[in-house]
Design goal:
The protein is 19% helix and 19% strand. With 108 residues, it is α+β, with helices and mostly antiparallel strands. It has a 3-stranded antiparallel β-sheet with strand order 1-2-3, covered by helices on one side. The chain has a two-stranded antiparallel ribbon with strand order 4-5. It is globular, with a radius of gyration of 19 Å. It is built from 2 helices and 5 strands.
Length: 108
């Protein structure tokens, strides 16, 4: 392990950010970088190699993250509904309803 670098620690997910939410409610390990977490709200990798969970907490305190969290909360019940194609008669009948959650898009 390179000196001075901190690997992502799953135990951090129990910690609270400044808004009182657990880090695990919006963050997970970045699969592509063992020294980073991944914000599922901002869809962004966050390095935690220098100060660990403090960098994740700092990210949560940023304006973009707060706006994205508000957007996600305000739109959590908005969904797109549609129908899937009817199965063949050998599979049983009837259209099936599908549901997709709308995710925010944001500009970097």
């Amino acid at each position: 392990m390179p000196s001075g670098k901190t690997k992502f620690n799953p135990s951090w997910m129990k910690k609270l950010d400044k808004s009182g939410k657990t880090l695990g409610s919006w963050c997970k390990r970045d699969n592509g970088n063992e020294y980073a977490g991944y914000c599922t709200v901002c869809m962004k990798s966050i390095s935690c190699s220098n100060s660990g969970a403090n960098q994740l907490i700092s990210h949560a305190d940023g304006q973009k993250h707060k706006e994205n969290m508000k957007y996600m909360h305000d739109n959590s019940q908005k969904r797109l509904f549609g129908s899937s194609p009817k199965p063949s008669s050998s599979q049983g009948g009837g259209a099936k309803s599908i549901c997709m959650q709308v995710h925010p898009s944001h500009k970097e």
